[in-house]
Amino acid sequence: MTGVVTDISQAVLPDAGVEIKDIAKGTTQSTKTDRQGVYRFFFLAPERYTLTVTHAGFRKEIRAANVLLGPPVTVNVTLELAAEHTTVIVTGEAPLIQSENGDVSTTMNQKQISEVPNPGNDLTYIAQTAPGMVMNVENQFGANFSSLGMPGTSNLFTIDGLNQNDNGTNIPLLRIT
Description:
Elements lengths: L1 E6 L9 E6 L5 E5 L5 E3 L7 E7 L6 E6 L10 E3 L30 H6 L17 E3 L9 E3 L10 E2 L2 E2 L14
Parallel strand pairs: 1-7
Antiparallel strand pairs: 1-4, 2-3, 2-5, 5-6, 8-9, 10-11
């Protein structure tokens, strides 16, 4: 059996993989096309065969072929371009951050606190540098900043984990003397 492997523009395809399988016996032989795109199988018994041709970037082509006594059988194969596709597989999903509640917190270290200018030595001034914080211009009950649109009296101040808010006004009990 012999043949030429080409693409749809009739350009020859060297190094295409060609495999022939004897349907009755299940045996296979394989070869590659030469520089002219030609493949050859020698001394095949008269049988029915399946011819499979593959090449990178092209669709696999499968053909049926009958080998009879006499001259060699010629099976030319034209390969079509493979359709390009990309598959993205997501194996997990990122969990929501604090999906149980809307609490927001920021931790600042001693160096960050000491390097931020603090006009008037206001102990709550550093909190205004955190994301979502704005200065409370109404200064209602002495609360200096608003967090993510909440009123200034909604802030909780802690020192070493202990609540430092006044129970009546809910503003910090921080007093400098």
